[in-house]
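From the pipeline queue, job 12 of 40. The input is one protein chain; the requested action is below.

Action: predict structure.
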Amino acid sequence: MDKNFWVKLKSQLLEFLLEIGPELIYALVILIFGIFLIKILMRILKGTLRKSRVELSLKTFLESLSVFLLYGFLFFVVGSILGIKTTSFIAVFGAAGIAIGLALQGSLSNFAGGVLILVFKPFKIGDLINVNDNLGFVEQIDILYTRIKTFDGRIITMPNGNVSNSDVDNRTMEKYRRIDLDLKFSFDTDMDEIRRVVTNGMNTHPKLATHLPVDVWLNEIGEYQMKIKARCWVESIEFWPAYWEQLEAVKKELDREGIIIPIPKHKIYKEDPS
């Protein structure tokens, strides 16, 4: 191969390095310094969030978003030093955004749902919620998914897009929740006696909200028995244990007072063949 070709190539390469070299070294220094600075800023941010009262789910979101924005700004600065025009950055990010958006439509919907959950806070970690017939305690709120733990120990992962567009029954948002017991008694049982006995039974619960009323009312006159509604209030987090304990306490009090819960009976009449 012609010797002049190598000489010319070496000359052009040296000229290119002399031309781009200072910018390349400067960009490399800025890149290393920027990465170091981002790590310091993220450490400060995490420490600040840890000391604040910001919810865990929002902390994760803010940390992820901050990393994305800081590195995006750093690459923009490095590209500008190397002579890449701003319009080129915008065109590249725009094309990448369209491609990613088409490929990840479901994930973007879940991301938007996660942002809505974090902003409007229909529930938080530790709340007992019912979404799409799934009842459980919120274990984790990610940007894309929400995880709940059911009473029987199952973990259910739900896309945030579905959660944000569904009716969310938050059963622990309010401090107190009402327990409703449905009871049945025969027509010959005295209503005042029922109210006294049932009220006494429910008042024995140690976690009863004593500043809220205990009610016992005739709710319906059925075909074969009276239907009674007994109500009291407890803290929402104690609802299910208190519900079962109150039901048992009322049954024991009824047994102690000799009041019998009616059992459906059928009378059969035999006609005299004569």
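Job complete. Residues 3-51 form the longest helix (49 residues).
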